[in-house]
Specification:
By secondary structure, this protein is of the alpha+beta class. The protein is globular, with a radius of gyration of 17 Å.
Length: 244
Amino acid sequence: TADDPQFSYNGRVVSIVGDIGQNTSEKLVSLARLQGAATCHFFPKERAGAVQKSVEAHDLSTNIWEFCKGGKSAYEAAQNVLKIHELPADITIAQLTVDTDAVRIEEFAAMTADAGVLAMSGRVMRGLDLPGITLAAIDQSGETVGSAWGYKCYHPKSPVSEYAFWGGLSCREDRRGEKIALVLGALSIVQLWEKLTVRGFCTGIVEGNTASFSLCEKLGILPSDQIGLGVTDPALFKGTTLTK
């Protein structure tokens, strides 16, 4: 799949990009059987129901995310956010890299999980397997209290090759309301645009998650005519999903 633009790897699972016709359901089922889960990004809304029905006939679970996207307007919105808002005085920003201590990676992943966000693999968070940026907000005691990331995970020959799968915005419960996730999200967009020539940002949000929709709207990442489709093996993902 590494040489096929129909597939991508975002740090969690191998995914399908777009609608690949009658093979979409078959490929999703196969990937879910192999990995325990699979996703399809940039999928047209009008085809979602048919593919869900076909996949669920194989005793797999599905869930739908609104696929929110932004381009230059997101970059400009992020710049504006950074002009208006600052992080609390006790917060510093750290980018996860190859030199980041394993304890920091584990703590970062645990904090995001507590906030309902599933982190990527350690290698991806460090920027080793994909061009990307992972940001952590660190308080004065050295603990991680916020996160944001974006990864340029689509094949160079894909029509969405300049997009980053973006998001991971989270904040530790006791620090919510201080706009930490908003500022981190804006910083990640600006850095992805300026350092990695990302020209599009996309993320999946579950219907009804008004907090995430509101946060993304402030950053110019808006609902589109596409969805993200998730497929999971119920035995492995009972009571949970890949994203909120």
